## 1
Amino acid sequence: MATLNALSEGRQVEFTRLRAILRITDGNLGAHLTTLENAGYIAVTKDFIGKKPRTRIALTRAGRKAFSRHIIFLREILDGEGSERESR
Amino acid sequence: MALSRQDAAAALHDIEQAQARSASLENYHRAAPHFMIWGVLWAVAYTLNDIYPLRSGAIWSVVVPIGVIAGLLAMRGRNERTWRYAAVIGAIFIFIVATVVVMWPVNARQVAAFIPLLVALTYVLKGIWSGVRYVGLGIAVSAFTLLGFFLVKDHFFLWMAVVGGGSLILASIWFRRV
């Protein structure tokens, strides 16, 4: 999510490019994306360029908000305010 | 799941690194088409300059607007402020004209070396802030320009077409890569 959050709002990234940026395997990335998609944090678009399938991923508004909340949560722990709170 | 301060610090560190890497790669990716456009235009314009050395003004007055329009078209559909691109090109153009006027008399060879050196400087400055690949490109363009200026006597424009334009085209390919 940090990788997607660094991109401008609405910007889609191809699966293969995201995999290269993150330096992880297809299966690992696919599992992460499925979890995030089910939570509504990312939008996955699948189409074809000619006969070649293409998968593009973008952070949704809900995903961006959730990510911001997570950052705030981590900062609060660092500041000593939320060390016992549950990660949301 | 309870997180310790150390866990939180480590997570924030990882997030910052991931965001910085992503932003840097995205920056390269967006710049790549512009390097291809200007690389091809440099190659064409300097080659024409070599063939018609007295027509520099006419050649570049056609090539620069083509580059700007192509650059704006390349940004179409992206969430980018295109006026910034046009403003940067305009500012560089005005600076070059002002410098040439102040330094006059200068010959075509000097101007042909000065412009790439200035452009290379902008790459180095950008690279210091947002990505080492720009620094590499700036150093390469500067080095090739100076090498040609001092060592290539008869076909400096052709030299710039090949190594100047070529550097930008190769940079475009390099910048696309993760």
## 2
Amino acid sequence: MSKFTRETHTINGVKTVVHTAGSGEPVVFFHGGGTIDGFDFAEAWTDRFRVIVPYHPGFGESDDDPTYTEMHDYVMHYLELFDAMRLDRFNLVGLSFGGYLAAKFACEHGHRVKKLGLIAPAGMIDPLNPMLDILAIPGEEVPGLLVSDFEVLKRRLPEKPDLDFIGDRYREATTLARLLWERPGDPKFMRYLHRLKMPTMIVWGDEDKVIPVQQTETWRKFIPNADIRVFKGAGHLVHLERREAVEAVGRFLS
Amino acid sequence: MSGAVRFNAMHFMPYVHLPENHKDYKSLWVSFPNKYFDPEKGHALYERYLSELVLADRLGFDAIVVNEHHNTVYSMMATPNLIAAALVPQVKNARICVWGTPPNFMLPNRLAEEYAILDVMSKGRLEIALPLGTGMEYWSNPVNPATAREKFKESLKIMLQAWTEDGPTTHYGTHYTYRFLNPWPRPFQRPHPPCYIVGTGSPETIEIAAELGFGYASVFVTQQRARELNETLRQRASQYGHTLRPDQLPLQSWVYVAETQERAEKEYIEHLQRFFEIYARTTPQFLAPPGYLSVDQLKQRAAMADKMHGGFDFDAVSKSFFIAVGTPEKVANQLGEWGQLMKTNHFNCVMHIADMPHWKTVKNLTLMAEEVFPRLRARSAQPALRAAAE
């Protein structure tokens, strides 16, 4: 039984579903560019924190807004959601696409982010270690690329993809395509990373097949003070494959 | 135009010299390596295919139809306006249908200009279809499938404005800004060449055709779906105050005519089979890039794909699509029956398919023109049938 309770906010007309659990200092978690991995891993933080997991518009239980065509639309969405939730200052953790969004939010609104955790974040343009163009990968091949040990993810997937599952994945890919089809990377993203002055931790799996672990070195160049942890034998969804990764982020935030 | 029965000769101009290992590739679209294109062989094919379309004109086909696809052996017409331009001086009587270039892959003013040039050069014989483009084309062109439909609508608006309003005009939209929309030349036909929307009948494209009063050229739809599509379109168009003429709803049919039924099937079926199994072979991913379809449409199509299984079955394919194969009498009867069923007098006939050799194409075109046309034209002159078609 999940500890999380579900609440709904309407932000500029977009129904936004937020799951929260625990008490203490707030930790907001931004999920990645898909929602098959779930967010139950974050229960590990609920003994110390009030964990807040919103679904981005166009993903999971939140509604679509086809007018969201750039990353900045999401930054503005969250600015307004956090205002509505009276979250003034909080810890922010983002995974993959959510890491990109979290870093972008923190670059622009750093005074609201106490500590920043990035789990295999996307967004970095690193020509020598490029991110896999996930939009070009056939849907049925994607789950296998997300983890090192497929068993970890398998139990979260239907035995045979049914129409609802296929439709849900197509919807989330559509949301990503609106943002990233023409330009998967924004060259200006890196320009402002120096604004990330808050304590920052970056975690990565050394067998990440989506974003190469070598990108940790590139992040280090932009955020020299970041605490970077690499976990052996884990893939892109390092938080599912290594409990220690989740614990490390929890300790960092404490 | 709306009264007389009309026959088009449609050609895909496929590249037929496939490597033996083509089955190793999951798709003959988008990602099939272009190293397999041999320009010497390509040159010979262009010469041959153009001669077949010119022959169709000489034989009395009412129109020649070309269209656009990218990154595929299925079609060597990545830019069909070039093919149309090559046809203009050779095709003396038939209308020339570019069905068509997806406006999303061109600047709309430039597409309006190219069509105007073809229309003026051909002295008003151009017809245009405006496709969104298949899903495959969005993997091959740098255009966002998730915003394709709104961009498509904006492009149409710009093209129509360029043709129907005296320039210079302006356009300030989501995807394009025109400070001086004033293209030269303007089309020969006023206000513009006949336009069709082309597609497989998604509710969104039907609505666009209905609103603009355009025809709709359905492609790769089953008989049942085509009938529903035409019915929906007529209803929706009337909501916008448009009454569609029968000729605005062309019926796409695959045709092969021979001396006997047995001979027709023997000469044709192998090519039709290779068309479905080889040339049209692609992947679900390429068919539906993210955002190209609504989630509901995607699920409907995924459900349909699940139901289709087993190998190629000519009888089953013949029953579900408009495939007329046989003697002139049989083909004439078949087309006549479908024309009544679909309430149209406009037959868009695919006269060459897959790796059909030149001699069969010439034979097919000739028997169709000399043996089938007179039968159907005589019938369409009968008032009762004409009334039914209208």
## 3
Amino acid sequence: MDYTPLFLSLQLAGVTTFFLLLFAAPLAYILVFHPMRGITFIESLVGLPLVLPPTVFGFFLLILMGPDGVVGRLHQTALGTPLIFTFGGIVIAAMLHGIPYAVQPLKTTFSKLDRRLLESAAVLGCSRTSSFFRVVLPNSLPGIASAAILCFAHTMGEFGVILMVGGSIPGETRVASIAVYEYVEAMRYSEAWQLSIALLVVSYLILLAVNLLERKNNAA
Amino acid sequence: MLLEANIHKTLAHFTLNIQFSCPAGNLLCLTGPSGSGKTTLIRILAGLDSPDSGSIRLGQKLLYDSNKSICLEPRKRKLGYVFQEASLFPHLRVRENVAFACNNSTRIDGLLDLLGISHLGDKKPAHISGGERQRVAFAQALAANPELLLLDEPFSALDIQTRHSLQQRFLDIKKELQIPIVLITHDLREATLLSDQVIAIEDGLINTGWLHNCREFVPPERLTEPRYISSKIHETADCLR
């Protein structure tokens, strides 16, 4: 049994979660504490992956990141390699599709923060950026951990977007969910079973971690 | 350093229309019924809320001026602010809280000593009492060497003994500080004990009449005369003369 697709899924989920949080945490901070004009348009844009079918979302990304797309051409010019059908390409696709799964829980966490802490920080001479690092992040660690686990879990189960942008290149873009689909199509049920059970165990462990974390937070 | 404020802001039920000044070393007390605009006023001084028009000047520094479109951010106003209930950073220890805006360890040690909280340095705010938290909040506000100190009912949530002890400690600190201090309180005895000037605010306006009802508590020489008085308040003031 080849477990490469499972390891690739874990690798994709890890990298995507890391970069997604770097992007989503400041975005959620701005959305909650410093909303500017036109913020509703940004919020609606952020929520798009929740309502668009993954294949449609993936199709747009395919066009954008393809050899004739703006992003694809920029990548080709800068690095000399195409973006689609690569691991980097599916990381970007998974990140964009996972934005609401990171931003929403982070927004909820930040909204619960006592605003007087930020006012105190401002009065004590903290800039907005400094407040984010010195006050918001340290007081939101459990929420950030929950968001990270949710992103990780969502990326582990990603299928449509990855298939559209990455195809199914073994060792590069053929993640566990795609491998299971292909095993079933080829009537190789034994492999499909094994990989599915492995995915089930990993997914259950992730959910268990989320629930334990939430229980710990509520107790605190 | 003189604090001069001329503030206009339309609120839900009335218009805040206040003008006052407070010299360095003086403590100006704002009092009046709940919901009269005191906290809004002090938040405007801090830059946490914006007025509709007017100006706020601290010495040579213009904190706010609607005509010149100047509105300094709170972090640039160089002030200390003690909230009604101390809002210390829960993830930091007492010493780290005080050091939040100050890197001078000698000054931090001095403030911890002055406020009698040196022994709490390694504790988190959740593990100290309300009175101790308020002392830490004072130390935090003073650590950055503020040019203006704003106190929003800092003693109100404390029991009588702790309140008296902290008030006495604050009187010592006040002597050392040569900056304008603005204090909100509902306790007129506290106002008399700590302040050099008292302003009563009712429905957004300075209303000395409100204080005349409490004359036994506040000596008349400390009352700041009204500058914006509605006709009704004029009548009340005339009757009381």
